[in-house]
Amino acid sequence: MGEKPFRAKQIFSWLHEKQAEDVSEMTDLSKTLREALSDRFCLTVLKPVDVLVSKLDGTRKYLFGLADGNVIESVWMEYHHGNSVCISTQAGCRMGCRFCASTIDGLVRNLSPGEMLEQVYRMGRLTGKRVSNVVLMGSGEPLDNYGNVVRFIRLLTDKRGLGLSARSITISTCGLPAEIRRLAGEGLPVTLALSLHAPSDEKRRELMPIARKYSLEEVLPACDYYFKQTGRRVSFEYSLVGGVNDTREEAMALSALLGKRDCHVNLIPVNPVKERKYVRSSRQAVADFKNVLEKNEINATIRREMGRDINGACGQLRRSYTHEHTYLPSDSPFFP
């Protein structure tokens, strides 16, 4: 636009430090420049379409409306060690995991870096509290939106903005080997969490269609490479489904599969999805599974359930909303 370089720093500060919602707020810019920016650009500002608040622990589940009429889910969780947000990286998902509501209607589109950032910024503004940790575990496969996700992380960790430590960011993936290896070379020491969910390719293919394309022989070496390159311990997410992958035999097989890796297993009692037949494992089965892992020197924890009373499974709130509403055409602003 022919402006002096220091103007870019001013605008960056307004966007990522002061988190302006309109160009008119950028008062240290000339009126002419503000008008030019308004004519050429628009700011991504998310509006809550629905908010569910847990009476048990204060967890807040937001349904945000996007400019094209799509909606996405984001979650605010408060812990003793700080506040975590779980954000979406796509509207919908094409990975097809059998126990997840996010993927039932397929992928609509990728989210932009701004739409991911605004989930973090907006929840911080709405609660008036600082965000300590960000997890990319909402709707979508982060590594299926690789370029936008990496740009989002670079902006989120920029010291001129929110300045969040990359070590406070977790990327959850169902296992795209090439992208995992590529991520290892980005110089971003984020935590990698692999959605494992089964100790064998046969059982994993039953739960996760992506496993038909990428076997454990491809996925696990990619995780080992990530650890070697970054020094960051990999987490393995394991959703326990009653009568499917929660037996003692499966726990023994998982112990053998992970072997002596410096890793952590996060056991997640699955949230039932009404469109699927799967049910949650019993408390005893979960405890027994964890006990087997620990006896085999595998570090494991059972994920603490947050917001249990506000409708659990990822993607359910979005799906119930979209089935009741018709998307507006993409050239029609969702919010006046």
Task: Explain what the structure shows.
The chain is an alpha/beta fold and 336 residues long. It has ten helices and twelve strands. Strands 1-2-3-4-7-8-9-10-11-12 form a ten-stranded mixed β-sheet, sandwiched between helices. A two-stranded antiparallel sheet has the order 5-6. Strand 11, helix 9 and strand 12 form a beta-alpha-beta unit. The protein is globular, with a radius of gyration of 21 Å. The chain starts with a helix and ends in a 14-residue tail after the last helix. The C terminus is likely disordered.
Keywords:
two-stranded antiparallel ribbon; 336 residues; 19% strand; disordered C terminus; globular; 33% helix; ten-stranded mixed beta sheet; alpha/beta; single chain; 10 helices
Largest pleated sheet: 10 strands, mixed
Mean pLDDT over the residues: 89
N- to C-terminal distance: 28 Å
- Strand line-up in the sheet with most strands: 1-2-3-4-7-8-9-10-11-12
- String of helices and strands: HHEEEEEEHEHEHEHHEHEHEH
Give the tally of β-strands: 12
